[in-house]
Amino acid sequence: MSAPIPGTPLATRSTAGTLDCFFAPGQIAVIGASPKEGSIGRALLENLAEFRGGVFPINPKYASILDRPAYARLADLPGRIDLAILATPASTIPGLMQECVAAGVRGAIILSAGFRECGPDGVRLEAEVRAIAARGGVRILGPNCLGLMAPHTRLNASFAASPARPGSVAFISQSGALCTAVLDWSRREKVGFSAFVSVGSMIDVGWADLIDYFGRDPHTRSIVMYMESIGDARSFLSAAREVARDKPIIVVKVGRTAAASQAAASHTGALTGSDAVLDAVFRRAGVLRVDAIEDLFDVAEVLAKQTRPRGPRLAILTNAGGPAALAADRLVLAGGQPAVLARATLDELNGFLPAPWSHGNPIDILGDANADRYAAAFEILARDPGVDGILVVLTPQAMTDALAVAERIKGALPLAGEKPVLASWMGGAAVEAGERVLNEAGVPTYSFPDRAAQAFVYLSRYSASLTARDETPDAARSDPASTPGVQTAAAIIAGARGRGRVILSQEESKRVLAAHGIPVAGAIRAQSEDETALAAVRTGFPVVIKLHSETITHKAAVGGVRLDVRDATEARAAWRAMERDVTARAGAQHFLGVTVEPMVRGDGYEAILGSSIDSQCGPVILFGSGGRNVALLQDRALGLPPLNLTLARRLMEQTRLYAALQPEAGRPAVDLNALGELLVRFGDLVIAHPAIKEIDLNPLFLSAEQIVALDARIILHAAEVPDRDLPRPIVRPDPVPRASMGIFAHER
């Protein structure tokens, strides 16, 4: 895996122009065209009937097909072909690709199945096709795909049963079957597309190419994706970060419930799963991940119509408690927050609402609420600085005028400013006129309030993702030579690898951390009973005695930890018991003595901070609740190094532990700024030493008095792995600030 090149422009391949052969071709050849009913070759020709350019059937069996002259081979065609669509058996594709190269074809859509999904032979066939196309400069979409549509130019280069409506959403899917289902749904819901693309196996054209292209496409306002695999994660991140600021990118990525990762040498390695890493990639790129297909288009609509909220706090205005409670539940479960109304807001609402109103959020203004009551309450909520968005819920009751309420809400929209407004007008035909008014005013409407609340949470997440996208850590921090003590840490690592070791002892691990300014609990080495007792006396009781080993990482599993040792006699006994237990459970060669360190007490929390390597994304940072129950708690968040203080705070905020660290009455607070700076320094360490495979700081003790790593382990890549093959971070700062974007350079 090669390193990112600092200063390299984001798009090192110019993909936008090269994809015109797919979305704006002049002439198209259909190889495998057929007049047979029910055949893919016939469906293609029928779907291309409205295409404004030339369409040429290729099939040596026929003189004409569907009233078009047919040709035996590409070489027989008049003029140059921009796009060839191949609908023949997989075994014929290499030969046909040779013909495409010879004829100067610019792009090819391979609809055929029978490649990598069929095993090793299919993989070899795929590689052969790719190599032929690469030599001739032919771009490939597919294989094993449905094709594509560009509705604004009446191009339907697919065998789908129905065409896509023109619109502003570019839809990209790895599943052809899902494409057909979405097309059927979109026609019922009147959703339109700027492009509709089935990518299949992506042997050439992939996510990054299409994001680049649609980022420049004037018909496209948002990009939505159904993703089964990310492919080249670096290229995806690079392209997505460039486009996401101007056009929302929304992804539903399947595979959340894949089997857990295999056992690793560290807790971090076990807790870091590929899907969770992709979440971190999406956040850093400014991409919004949603949970379901219907959410893709809900979110695309709300992003097209509404501003992004400043935060996750939603006010729910309603004339019925039940639907509002449904919305509030979904809001909280999805990660949003009910807005806490300001005292001044409550006073204003109390001034005109009937006494039985809810006196909180949701703001239930009761079933007899008329348009004036709705409008007055809405205007008050719009002024509350603690409200980031407003959901207006209406249920039709005897005295409800859904149209009048909608008109008044429409008139008050300017008061909301940058706060997004969503609505749920429940009741079907009885509220259609009001829904129409709101939709025309740019307010997304939902049949049920829980879907509206979910849409707001996605909107909030998207806003947070764009904030993370714009964060650019100081490039100097990622230069190993600029980090104090880095040479000390590098010497420790190089020394261990030079001796054929891949596990640093706890003492060595702590020295590496300390060299990067990360506070660690001091320890004294001891190699006998007497030395252990003396070290314990010097340290001051109570103490912790731990195994010193260059081969064992999970010390507790072999009896290598003794807590709360209170006198010299107990210290001697701890040495003897540890030597006996480690010898019995692991072998005498693994017992190299002990370390003695202070027993940390106090009102604090145990966290874990670590790093491990993802095969696609390089080093990944983990933070969360730690201690002995770290695997049970499963409270962790992942981020990509390097970090700055804002990114470090966002990482902490994703955990349940973060809420526990907030100040409470009677208890001094943990210094979150100091913790954030520690996370930043930890990210610098990870960047500076690519030879590190895994790190665990567990527990990392957090209290008002101190933040200190009580235990540490570092796992290295074997010395046989050359420096050029050591994993590199997927993202790095530019060494030269780019004022216009503040963006990272990424390898493509």
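^ that was protein a. below is b, sequence first then the tokens
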Amino acid sequence: MLRTLHIQNYALIESLEVDFESGLNILTGQTGAGKSIIIGALEMILGERAQKQAVRTGARRAVIEGVFDAVTSPLVRRAMSEQGIEAASHLILRREIASTYSRAYINDSPATLTVVRAVAAHLIDLHGQHQHQSLLRTETHLEMLDHFGSLGGLRKDYERRYDEVRELLERRLKLEKEQRDAHLLKERLAFEISEIDAIDPKLDEEESLEAEQRRLENAERLYSATATLYEMLYARDGATGDQLIVARNELQSLARIDAVFEAAHEEIRSAQIVVADVAALLQDYNARIEFSPRRLEEIRERLGELDRLKRKYGGSMQAVVEHRSRIGGQYDLLVNFKASLQALTEAIDTNRSLLADTAMRLSSKRHEVAERIEGTVAQELSRLGMPAARLTVSFGLRKDPAGWIRLRSPGVGAGRYRAWRHGMDEVEFKIATNEGEPSKSLRHVASGGEISRIMLALKTILAKSESLPILVFDEIDSGVSGRIARKVGESMAKLGRYHQIIAITHLPQIAALGQAHFTVEKRVEQGRSKTYIRRLEEDERAEHVARLFSGALVTDAMRKSARELMHVP
């Protein structure tokens, strides 16, 4: 709901802040007091284009800000998500207007008017002489119908099948494009496969080859060094091993005299064993050293081939192996294009058939729901002073030779039809307001007051089956009075149980039923006109409702009538 509306330096408003209530909020005031200015300011935060003349004379800029409670409507949440706006504890729409610029913000982040409209379209509905009437946008009619009929489950089933067909068609288009380029692509892939397979690289091969290369390149040094070390440690006279034996024996003799030399004797014995082991390693390694210029050349050539593959196919052996696996799958697909396309086509035909069946079931349910809407709305419109009005739900199908939905039913008309994500139906609410007139588009037939009452009738029957936006009715009482005005007020009060309504009215029958009543006043201060708004206290409401009967002169009889309308003793 709209919790707070703040307006600064907009038209006649210098500074104004109003806290609205849930349910039915009533705005009254004399003609010219500025009620329409408040509605105009509200339009600004809904994305309406601004006029620089709207900035109050002498002010640098106008600021309008609306603070909304945490949004629970799935449609609003989806619109916010699609625009990349994160949900928060509150939703704040703000508009700044100056002579040289106009800026919009959502939750303090800059937003384009397109984004603001996308979010606001599911948040507030203005009814009167305004541009935000959802009823005038035919794309909303189908949503209303589906909500009324609780067709969400069936519609999701259809959407799932629609997405499956779309995905399969996209895959086939991609495959067909690849097939057109298949000849050159196939040749290129065959060359790459042949090139990689001829070398047949292994993931751990390089490290092993490089180690062998180092040994072969340093074979002479390895041979000489290991031979020399073996001589030093074990083979020649006075070698380290011999000297350790002498040292061991001497320490053993000393240990018999003084036990302090026993540890040293053991250390020398350990060193003797280590030297013997190292000497054996050196002798064995020396015997196995290979002097093979041919093998060294083979390794260099192999490493060169592997390096060339790496430079060409990704920079590492891992990348080369992965590339080979990937192009192998592509090549197999190219070789089997015909079979792959045939399988995809069969899958598309099967899923199109399922889509058509689901679309028909959804359309059939929609026709049933449409009959109920037509009958129920007719009764509600009669209560609201439009007894001759008839709302008609018009259905249409669009033929398309390439359409996804193929119908064979003679009742519908055999052929192919266009499919949308919402179904195959094109739905529009049409109205005939007088006897003998054909039904026509709401945009071209109904007046602002009639549109408001038609929407009131629709929202009344949809109230429990739809997550409703905030409704703003600007002079919905146009052309009604007396008993009908009371019916309009009762419908609005009933609708206020399910969502927030802000209504501008001149009729006491409507004003008396508000949960909160605000008066809009214009005052002249220091030679300047200013518009103010304030909430009426309970003891003031009856006086203002009475004033709506006849203007400034209020009699006791009028006060009594006002209290009776308000159900106040």
